[in-house]
Amino acid sequence: MAASYISVPRDLTKVKSRIIFGLTKRQLICFTVAALIGVPSFFFIRSVAEVNVAVMSMMVIMMPIIFFALYEKNGRPLEVYLGHFIEAVFVRPRKRPYKTDNYYSALERTARAEREVRKIVRSSMEKK
């Protein structure tokens, strides 16, 4: 008698629930949106150009949406990576100089502030 084994993943957070045809909810939504945009564009382009051109343009239109559905790296979808890219390239400054605050300069600033306070106190005491 042969024993049959079922592999169970150790990290259950990476397991995704499948809804229809083995697709996750995210993939199902993205494929539906791609079909809703791609099929009408096919018929519109077919009325203007040849079928080959219409099919290729439909594929070009649908592929980015399908890529959003399928691409996932390190548990993060494509829009997270695009958000990080846009933030790093366009939002944050290019040059981020490293500024140190060493202990000696902090002590020097504190001493300078204390001398200034003593000077102000002395001048107010002399006026009285």
Q: What profile does the largest beta sheet have? A: 2 strands, antiparallel
List the secondary-structure elements in sequence, H or E.
HHEEHH
Mean pLDDT: 84
Q: Compute the separation of the termini in Å.
A: 106 Å
Radius of gyration, CA atoms, in whole angstroms: 32 Å
Write the layout of secondary structure elements.
Blueprint: H1 25-48, H2 51-70, E1 72-73, E2 76-77, H3 78-91, H4 103-127
Antiparallel strand pairs: 1-2
Describe it.
- The chain is mostly helical.
- It has a domain at 16-94.
- The protein contains four helices and two strands.
- It has helices spanning 25-48, 51-70, 78-91, 103-127; strands at residues 72-73, 76-77.
- A hairpin with a 2-residue loop joins strand 1 and strand 2 (76-77).
- The longest helix has 25 residues, at 103-127.
Brief rundown of the structure:
By secondary structure, the chain is mainly α.
Key words describing this protein structure:
128 residues, mainly alpha, elongated
